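Figure 3 (text version): structure tokens given as input.
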């Protein structure tokens, strides 16, 4: 899988930098072409000559002598040359630089100049540094922008403490790189994703909303694009940017969501409904602002997006719904899947201080005659796991249907 692939290996200044030598060696053994870029701090942990010998090419590094042999590759050329850029280890400091778009050294400049190629980051640091809110927020920002976070693993650390922050082993990083180059499991499929909350106006200035952040739906849209699908995103009001190359239709109310999804659904093979659509809204909406000391609202049922798509007589896409429940997760998810005629349902626990807006999530995925629990993971990773299941079941279900 890695034969002939051009891998740019970025190394930053952490204890785990020594493992990058083994990684470079393993990559070249598998036939990849490897070029190395090191930060100044990285060169204090491991010498550029080691990496030069292992990669077979001069190392690009801060303050280093210009590469010998007329190889003149600079940061822009490096970003254009590679098929993927993997930073291993990625320090807390480097993640902060990237999150803020800083370009103060040759590696961060290369990352900023990278276009249309995967950026993979393998963080390695003390557990308190990893768990610090600043690092959490930097990592979230980077993941939202499409960077792929690999690890870290939990365990005994170089500093003697125990917890999350160990860099993944070279073999695990290589598996992740191979997955990046695996032919997309959804290549050629058209995928419609709904995401975010809806806002139901109760007068010209106020609305009823819910706590959906849109993160899960956006992560699904990004992972589907990554897996080769042509993706359309229908989104309620959120504070997120659409993944690169994914067209987005913005809506506000449940009724608008219903209209947009029904117009799009017949042109798609798969519909993943991650939006938290309001079940109730005011109809009609008063045209003047409410006044007085008491406000009484009579809410009417909004149109059911999932049921309408499930009932499409022609071109009904493969249908994946979400269920956010505060209790009896499995029972309610099973019932919802049957009641709404879904092919697959993804249940997540909300309330009890988790669910909406959280960066990490556990999911229970159920289909006809089976199911699987996806253990706690960041939403982008969870979205990739979910799409692998969707691709597999979509293939078997449509294959079976074709034979009936
Ligand atoms: C002995 C030593 C070990 C360090 N190990 C780590 C580490 O594992 N992870 C990390 O994020 N920072 C670590 N640091 C801090 C970084 O080296 C420091 O933030 C540096 O500025 C990172 O530079 P860079 O991100 O440009 O490579 C370590 C510092 C020292 C002195």
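Below: residues designed for each position.
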């Amino acid at each position: 899988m890695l034969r002939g692939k051009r891998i740019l290996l970025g190394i930053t200044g952490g204890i785990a930098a020594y493992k990058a030598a083994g990684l470079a060696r393993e990559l070249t053994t598998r036939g990849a072409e490897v070029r190395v870029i090191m930060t100044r701090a990285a060169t204090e942990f491991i010498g550029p000559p080691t990496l030069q010998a292992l990669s077979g090419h001069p190392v690009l590094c801060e303050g280093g002598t210009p590469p010998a042999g007329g190889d003149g590759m600079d940061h822009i050329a490096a970003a254009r040359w590679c098929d993927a850029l993997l930073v291993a280890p990625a320090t807390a400091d480097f993640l902060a630089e990237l999150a803020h778009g800083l370009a103060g050294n040759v590696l961060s400049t290369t990352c900023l100049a990278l276009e249309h190629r995967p950026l993979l980051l393998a963080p390695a640091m003390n557990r308190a540094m990893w768990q610090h809110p600043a690092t959490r927020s930097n990592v979230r920002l980077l993941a939202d922008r499409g960077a792929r976070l690999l690890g870290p693993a939990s365990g005994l650390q170089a500093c003697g403490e125990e917890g999350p922050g160990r860099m993944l082993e070279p073999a695990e990083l290589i598996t992740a790189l191979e997955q990046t180059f695996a032919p997309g499991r959804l290549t050629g499929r058209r995928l419609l994703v709904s995401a975010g909350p809806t806002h139901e106006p109760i007068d010209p200035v106020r609305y009823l909303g819910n706590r959906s952040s849109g993160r899960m739906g956006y992560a699904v849209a990004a992972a589907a694009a990554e897996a080769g699908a042509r993706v359309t995103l229908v989104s309620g009001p959120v504070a997120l940017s659409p993944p690169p190359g994914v067209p987005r239709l913005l809506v506000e109310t449940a009724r608008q969501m219903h209209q947009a999804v029904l117009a799009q659904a017949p042109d798609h093979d798969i519909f993943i409904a991650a939006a938290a659509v309001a079940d109730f809204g005011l109809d009609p909406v008063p045209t003047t602002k409410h006044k007085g000391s008491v406000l009484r609202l009579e809410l009417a049922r909004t149109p059911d997006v999932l049921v309408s798509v499930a009932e499409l007589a022609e071109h009904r896409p493969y249908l994946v719904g979400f269920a956010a429940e505060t209790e009896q997760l499995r029972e309610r998810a099973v019932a919802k899947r049957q009641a709404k005629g879904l092919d697959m349902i993804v249940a997540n626990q909300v309330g009890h201080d988790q669910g909406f807006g959280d960066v990490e999530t556990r999911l229970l995925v159920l289909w006809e005659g089976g199911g699987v629990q996806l253990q706690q993971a960041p939403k982008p990773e969870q979205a990739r796991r979910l799409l692998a299941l969707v691709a597999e079941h979509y293939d078997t279900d449509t294959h079976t249907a074709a034979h009936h």
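DSSP finds 14 helices and 20 strands in the chain.
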